[in-house]
Amino acid sequence: MTMNQQWRLARLPVEGWPTDGDFVLGRTELSEPAENQALTKTTYLSLDPYQWGRRRSGVEEIGDVCHGRTVSQVVKSRHAGYKEGDVIFNTNGWQTYGLVGEDISEFGYMHPRVLDTSQAPASTALGVLGMLGLTAYSGLYVQCQPKPGETVVVSAASGGVGQNVVQIAKLKGCRVVGIVGSDDKCDFVVDSLGAQACINRKAPDFIEQLREACPDGIDIYFENVGGEVFEAVLPLLNSRARISLCGLISQYGNDDAASNHARWQKTGASVFEKRQVQVNGLFVGNFVEDYQSQFLEEMSAWVRDGLVHYKEDIWHGLERAPEAFDAMLKGGNFGKTLVQVSDAPAA
Ligand code: NDP
């Protein structure tokens, strides 16, 4: 009998970062698809920072299969929209099999769809041609409207979102400076993504290096991390600079409200007001209706023409999902974090 292997939430992690006891691996008997459903086998599982937010805020409950977007392959179908062998984008979560169909209602704006793997590798639906690419496109291109010659600074610049921001900014003729957490990542951001400079946030003279790399100040800041990196960027912002506030990952396990408040008050108000800085909160879901088609058309062409590259950090085996998730949240990933759960479908 085929069994479904699943990671379930074992405790409600209301504070801090993930710990060993958060997830439990189990097996259940495989469900047969009902009418208007298809059974799918997970190929790639996407690990994303927002999953920790769901767990911390109680959207996921103890015993739930952990949520996660996936690429999977249809193994049995009773749904007119899917046939056996189709490779699809869906939301199986942290498990080896999942059902897809009209009565599976979790998907929100991320509707399941059949992928054309002759155009791009299936995994790109979870990265450069998926939510992460659209996040970069929406925050940089739509919100901040970069102009040639402007200085764009991107934090977590080698990560799933950041690598796309760097390359779109380059395509728009900007001068790009990345911020990352290791020298290897710096080399990648400059040599492979084409940034003019990249600074290791852990270097003892990080603040001076950043200032030197931005001699004309910063016109656009794409914020992925918050905390000390944000504080180093703020004094360098030019008048009428634009910020896309995409994420604050350094704070996702920080429950010290007093220190968080102090940080915002110290750094935010004076800089934003005096220099008329435009701060744009970013939620990718708000851009799907108006920009997803335009994004997919442009980004697919850039990828196909070799103008945009993508780096994936692939962990093998579902059992490694918690380890990979923890590493990603703490900067141990190098590129978009994926778990390969079963063999990739042939292109
Ligand atoms: P990444 O692939 O960029 O991985 C996370 C990266 O964050 C790490 O590799 C690390 O990069 C950096 N990081 C981790 N801890 C710290 C820290 N303490 N200080 C500074 N940097 C740290 O993840 P994603 O591309 O998936 O997500 C990037 C950001 O985008 C996240 O904040 C996420 O929440 C946000 N996001 C927002 C969306 C929206 O709609 N607004 C949609 C999707 C993502 P390094 O070591 O190189 O610094």
Fold blueprint:
Layout (H helix, E strand, L loop, with lengths): L2 E7 L13 E7 L7 E10 L3 H7 L13 E8 L9 E4 L6 E5 L11 E2 L16 H14 L6 E5 L6 H10 L3 E6 L2 H9 L5 E4 L5 H8 L4 E6 L3 H7 L3 E9 L11 H18 L3 E4 L6 H17 L7 E5 L4 H9 L6 E5 L7
Parallel strand pairs: 8-9, 8-11, 9-10, 11-12, 12-13, 14-15
Antiparallel strand pairs: 1-2, 3-4, 3-6, 3-15, 4-5, 5-7
Helix pairs in contact: 2-3, 2-8
Fraction of residues in H or I helices: 25-40%
**Small-molecule binders:** NADPH dihydro-nicotinamide-adenine-dinucleotide phosphate
Q: Runs with pLDDT <50, length 5+?
A: none
Distance between the termini: 29 Å
**What's the Cα radius of gyration?**
21 Å
Instruction: Give the CA-based shape.
Output: globular
Oligomeric state of this protein: single chain
- The CATH topology of the largest domain is what? Rossmann fold
Q: Write down the domain tally.
A: 2
How much of the sequence lies in strands comes to 25-35%
In round numbers, the mean pLDDT is 92
Number of helices: 9
SS-derived structural category: alpha/beta
Tell me the name of the CATH homologous superfamily of the largest domain: NAD(P)-binding Rossmann-like Domain
**What CATH architecture of the largest domain would you give?**
3-Layer(aba) Sandwich
Query: Number of DSSP strands?
Result: 15
Written account of the structure:
- The chain is an alpha/beta fold and 347 residues long.
- It has two domains: 3-124 and 311-340, Medium-chain alcohol dehydrogenases, catalytic domain (Quinone Oxidoreductase, Chain A, domain 1, Alpha-Beta Complex), CATH 3.90.180; 131-285, Rossmann fold.
- Helices cover 29% and strands 25% of the residues.
- The protein is built from nine helices and 15 strands.
- Strands 3, 4, 5, 6, 7, 14 and 15 form a seven-stranded mixed β-sheet that branches. It has a six-stranded parallel β-sheet with strand order 10-9-8-11-12-13, sandwiched between helices.
- Helix 4 links the parallel strand 9 and strand 10 (197-200).
- NADPH dihydro-nicotinamide-adenine-dinucleotide phosphate (NDP) binds next to helix 2, helix 6 and strand 15.
